[in-house]
Design brief:
CATH topology of one domain in chain C: MetI-like fold
Mean pLDDT of chain C: 87
Largest sheet of chain A: 2 strands, antiparallel
Helix content of chain C: over 70%
Strand order of the largest sheet of chain A: 1-2
Chains: A mainly alpha (422), B alpha/beta (364), C mainly alpha (284)
CATH superfamily of the largest domain in chain A: MetI-like
Number of strands of chain A: 2
Shape of chain C: globular
CATH architecture of the largest domain in chain A: Orthogonal Bundle
Low-confidence stretches of chain A: 1-5
Order of helices and strands of chain A: HHHHHHHHHHEEHHHHHHHHHH
Oligomer: heterotrimer
CATH topology of the largest domain in chain A: MetI-like fold
Low-confidence stretches of chain C: none
Number of domains of chain A: 3
Largest sheet of chain C: none
Order of helices and strands of chain C: HHHHHHHHHHHH
Shape of chain A: flat
CATH superfamily of one domain in chain C: MetI-like
Radius of gyration of chain A: 32 Å
Chain lengths: 422, 364, 284
């Protein structure tokens, strides 16, 4: 090569310098590969990535307050929220003008609902005040007194603090709420004890997920070990017992457990028949954490066994044999020689099970009862049942961030190229 | 190639979107026996009279507020008539998501000419709400599990000594908080004033704490009937129509405890922002479905009280069981000795807050 | 687990057999819940446990009533029909787009390969409730929420990671000199793809397709959010049934679905053997 550069460029058959020609062909190849990928990439971006991105944006959006109360937001900008004094007459006048306009556009209720997430009572306060501002307020009288006469709450500084706190176009308010804190003029403080819901639920989700992952590992490891050390023909046969649950509908398996674990179900019946339980002291195995743990362990077990198995298949048998011939006991040979080599499989399986488990919705919803509710169930409730989309998005963002961290970890340890299915 | 696909895809999507043609009318309700009664009393007769109308039903009423909000945000309303509880109707009306109705011009008068506004009376709780039924959330108990003195007061729910065993309550604060305060000595009229204070909320939770370990929490209307039938609970709250089916259709050893039943209303709204044609069709349906005879017809299939005063005398016998329906209505004088009307406006303010507190309390 | 050597000590023997017993119990745990619903679905009584008649194998204890109910109930039939019409379309889209992209990804010199791969596989990793919520809002905006195509597109995205994974896996062992040879002999890229690459990666494509199919066929969270009542699928109907009023018909449906899973599993196993034979790897 060095000779060639010294004597001028090497030429390709068509006369262009080889370097250039190779580069062009490489560019061409890259372009072709990208063109093959492009349709799918565009498809995934539009149908999947964009929706999630747009949803996450809702967790910080707060346009409703500045859009509905533009004058008030300006008037409150100079007000010192920590002074303990009510804002001046100008702020009251601005609010009256804003609310009168909002009432005519029917946007005052949307604003009321938004603020009611932060403090109970806002709905009726803004509904009433909006109507009065549009119909009854006298522009020649001081607004402050008219407001306070209408609803004494307007004389409380907390309401104005709330308005000021939430006057910007974007807010971290939903996230603050999602971690069970609240915004005050003095900064963030934890909510009172009886109102901490979401972090508690998040921690419970993580705790249950950890238990499920460990259980899967404990009972999946021996099976993977057995399968990896049996002759192929037998292993393939037994593998079916792992793959059949893997291929069976989630709903089928959840209904099966629901039926098995009821108080009048098969498991309790058998225990009573065996004399382990008295008929009147049947176990509560469903609609609580126990039900969630049993069912989800069963559902996720194949996701632990399959990666473990594929790693164990690759562990050469002669290391263990060598250890034994050097005098190691069976246990030492396993623990010191075999087990360390299976750790990549443990990592792969455990992270996969953890990722899948932490976002579960269907199974906790059906068998979880009151103590087995996952964070996903909260998100679903806040989207459809008692709509608070900002909070749903904030909880979703936290969950997604957690999963993404694990995903990157998985990629580092296993490599997403090496995910094996079946 | 790619462009072609996109065009084909886009035109296919456009076709699907346009496929909800003028003749289709999407009516949303609650599913189950309730929707079946509407099918019999309203949908089928209406379609028989209007062969050009095809009613498509959806069962998403529980998610009506969220879904209508999303539809309005997207500017694409795919529902024509929606069955909602009064509280949701008020909320949708306030948000401008439901259209306002003038009862006297847009709803049928009573057979004797009484205008609809008088016939419905106080039940017209919102400008957008077209009342349909009065129902109540109340208790049923197992007659074979309560000994010789069956429970007679809602406070017996809190008495685990006289009535040992599990009870089922709805997994939400509405109803439970009120009952807890009433049984803790608060007068009916003061309940919401007390409940608005942190001390009052603590008092209600403290009362609920006394039975917390004995409660199975339900979230679907079918749960309590199932639990009662299986004998897993001794008493439980649910909608009165579900208990009627359990007692009269399935002949389970269960009886009603009407004391302090919490009244609620259910009815129709028409989403705001429909095209003139669809709006007209929806109004036509609602005019038909809420006239005096039709409301009385629905009571042939389910034990909910018709919302019109003029329908009450027309309530007859159950379609298949042949029993008199009037004594099973929550509004029957014998059942309505002690009732509780839940305060929509109060709950609109406190719902977000108390929901969270209630869930936190549950998880403790 | 090789056999015990003849010189094993008593302790080793005990350990060996107790290990086998433990494994047996775990296999039982894995398979029992799936098997047990099959006889229960033939229960003549509307209960979810074995009646004395069933245990005595008395024919009177069994009936196909719940199956008849499934086949005669309009709601269940509509759900079945919806499932059958959504899953194949989603599978077709996922396989065509996915295979094309997998071929692209398997070439040398793909810029940003890692990032693209991570992005394409993410639908499998992102919690379903988050995908579902995002799609619910976004699809409402563009007017396909509550439509057949909305559900199909959502299911397609969820199936794509499986196609990518299985097809790129078969392409890893692909000998690129074959395509060069074909190109040398004058075949165009399209012809080369269908004549040379396709037959070799077909097992991967089919098993990816099966995964995509079962993903769509089983999916309920996203369907519930993106679909409306007229797109109710079988698992959605089961979900509602389990939450509302649990009826034995659900067990009949579950049994049918188990049958389908067994069929799919069989196809997959046959494919695996064929592909091993083709690649000259004989099962030991």
């Amino acid at each position: 090569m060095s000779d060639a550069t010294a004597n001028g460029p090497v030429l390709a058959a068509d006369g262009t310098p080889l370097k250039k020609s190779l580069q062009r062909s490489l560019r061409h190849k890259k372009f072709r590969a990208l063109m093959l990928i492009a349709p799918l990439l565009a498809f995934v971006l539009v149908t999947f990535v964009a929706p999630i991105g747009a949803m996450l944006l809702r967790s910080v959006e707060n346009q409703i307050v500045p859009d509905t109360l533009p004058r008030t937001v300006v008037a409150l900008a100079d007000w010192d929220a920590t002074s303990g004094e009510l804002p001046d007459e100008a702020a009251f006048a601005a609010l009256a003008a804003d609310l009168a306009e909002a009432f005519d556009n029917k946007t005052h209720v949307k604003l009321a609902i938004r603020l009611n997430y932060e403090s109970p009572g806002m709905t009726s306060l803004f509904k009433k005040t909006g109507k009065a501002a549009a119909r009854r307020f006298d522009p020649d009288q001081p607004y402050r007194q008219q407001f306070i006469d209408l609803r004494p709450e307007w004389g409380e500084v907390e309401i104005w603090q709330l308005l000021k706190t939430y006057s910007s176009r974007y807010t971290n308010g939903y996230f603050v709420n999602a971690i069970d804190m609240q915004k005050t003029p003095d900064g963030l403080v934890m909510k009172p004890d009886g109102q901490r819901v979401y972090m508690a639920s998040m921690l419970r989700t993580l705790g249950l997920t950890l238990v499920i992952t460990l259980l899967c590992l404990t009972i999946g490891y021996p099976i993977a070990f057995l399968l990896a050390n049996l002759p192929m023909s037998k292993a393939n046969l037994l593998m079916i017992l792992v793959l059949l649950p893997f291929w069976t509908s989630l709903l089928v398996r959840t209904s099966a457990w629901k039926v098995l674990l009821q108080q009048q179900g098969v498991v309790n019946d058998v225990l009573v028949w065996l004399g382990v339980l008295a008929d009147d002291s049947r176990l509560e195995l469903i609609n609580n954490q126990t039900g969630t743990i049993i069912t989800m362990t069963h559902i996720l077990l194949p996701f632990m066994i399959l990666p473990l198995y594929s790693v164990m298949k690759g562990i050469p048998p002669y290391y263990v044999r060598a250890a034994k011939s050097l005098g190691a006991t069976n246990w030492t040979a396993f623990w010191r020689v075999y087990f360390p080599q299976s750790i990549p499989g443990i990592g792969a399986g455990a992270i996969l099970v953890f990722i899948l488990s932490v976002g579960y919705y269907i199974t906790p919803e059906l068998v979880g009862g009151r103590s087995g509710k996952f964070i996903s169930n909260w998100i679903a409730d806040f989207v459809l049942k008692s709509p608070n989309w900002g909070l749903a998005a904030a909880l979703g963002a936290i969950l997604l961030a957690l999963v993404m961290v694990l995903y990157v970890l998985y990629d580092k340890i296993v490599g997403i190229d090496n995910v094996k299915l079946g | 190639m790619k462009l072609n696909k996109l065009i084909i895809g886009a035109s296919a999507l456009a076709m699907i979107a346009g496929a909800a043609s003028a003749e289709d009318m999407t009516i949303v309700s609650w599913g189950g026996a309730y929707q079946a009664s509407q099918q019999n009393a309203y949908f089928d007769p209406y379609m028989a009279m209007h062969p050009d109308v095809n009613i498509i039903t959806d069962e998403s009423s529980g998610e009506a507020v969220a879904k209508l909000r999303a539809m309005a945000e997207a500017g694409n309303i795919s529902w024509d008539v929606v069955d909602v509880v009064a509280a949701d109707a008020m909320r949708l009306c306030d948000e401008g998501l439901a259209m306002e109705i003038d009862p006297d011009t847009q709803l049928a008068p009573a057979p004797d000419g009484t205008p609809a506004s008088e016939d419905f009376g106080d039940l017209l709780v919102s400008e957008c709400f077209i009342p349909q039924i009065v129902y109540s959330t109340t208790f049923g108990y197992r007659t074979d599990m309560v000994g010789d003195t069956p429970p007679s007061s809602v406070c017996d729910v809190f008495d685990t000594e006289t009535y040992p065993g599990k009870r089922s309550l709805e997994k939400r604060p509405i109803g439970n908080m009120e009952w807890a305060l009433i049984c803790d000595g608060v007068a009916d009229a003061d309940v919401y004033d007390v409940l608005a204070t942190p001390e009052g909320q603590a008092q209600a939770f403290a009362k609920l704490d006394t039975i917390k370990d004995d409660v199975i929490w339900w979230s679907a209307g079918a749960d309590t009937p199932q639990l009662l039938a299986d004998g897993e609970v001794v008493m439980g709250s649910t909608y009165n129509g579900r208990l009627f089916a359990l007692i009269e259709e399935q002949h389970q050893p269960v009886a009603m405890l009407w004391d302090a039943q919490v009244y609620d209303l259910d009815g129709w709204i028409i989403p705001a922002g429909l095209s003139a044609e669809r709006q007209q069709a929806a109004l036509d349906f609602v005019y038909f479905a809420t006239d005096t005879q039709r409301l009385a017809d629905q009571a042939k299939y389910i034990s909910y009280g018709p919302a019109r005063a003029s329908s009450a005398p027309l309530v007859g016998k159950h379609e298949s069981l042949g029993i008199d329906m009037a004594p099973h209505m929550p509004t029957d004088p014998a059942n309505a000795q002690h009732t509780f009307l839940f305060n929509y406006n109060w709950w609109a303010d406190y719902r977000d807050d108390l929901d969270a507190k209630f869930q936190a309390w549950l998880a403790q | 687990m090789s056999k015990l050597p003849p010189y094993a000590t008593t302790g080793q023997r005990i350990w060996h057999y107790s290990f086998l017993v433990i494994c047996g119990l775990i296999f039982f745990f894995l398979i029992f819940p799936i098997i047990v619903i099959v006889p229960l679905s033939f229960n003549a009584q509307p209960y979810f446990t074995f009646t004395p008649e069933m245990l005595a194998l008395d024919p009177a204890g069994f009936s196909t009533e719940h199956y008849q109910k499934f086949f005669n109930d309009a709601d269940w039939q509509r759900a079945l029909w919806n499932s059958i019409s959504i899953a194949p379309m989603a599978t077709f889209l996922a396989v065509s787009l996915g295979t094309l992209a997998a071929v692209g990804l398997s070439q040398s010199h793909v810029p940003f390969r890692g990032t693209i791969m991570a992005l394409l596989i993410s639908p499998m990793i992102v919690p379903l409730i988050i995908s579902a919520t995002g799609m619910y809002f976004f699809y409402s905006q563009i007017g396909i929420q509550g439509t057949y195509w909305g559900v199909v597109l959502a299911h397609t995205v969820l199936g794509i990671p499986f196609v990518i994974i299985t097809v790129t896996a078969t392409l890893v062992g692909f000998d690129h000199s074959l395509t060069r040879a074909a190109a040398n002999m004058g075949a165009g890229p399209v012809r080369t793809f269908f004549k040379i690459q396709m037959p070799l990666i077909l097992p991967g494509v089919i098993s990816g397709g099966l995964f995509a199919f079962i993903t769509s066929f089983d999916e309920v969270v996203v369907t519930k959010f993106v679909g409306s009542a007229s797109q109710t699928t079988l698992p959605w109907r089961m979900f509602t049934g389990l939450r509302e009023q649990i009826s034995p018909t659900i067990l009949a449906v579950a049994t049918i679905l188990v049958g389908i899973s067994i069929a799919l599993l069989t196809v997959l196993e046959l494919l695996r053997r064929r592909s091993e034979r083709l690649r000259g790897i004989t099962p030991s």
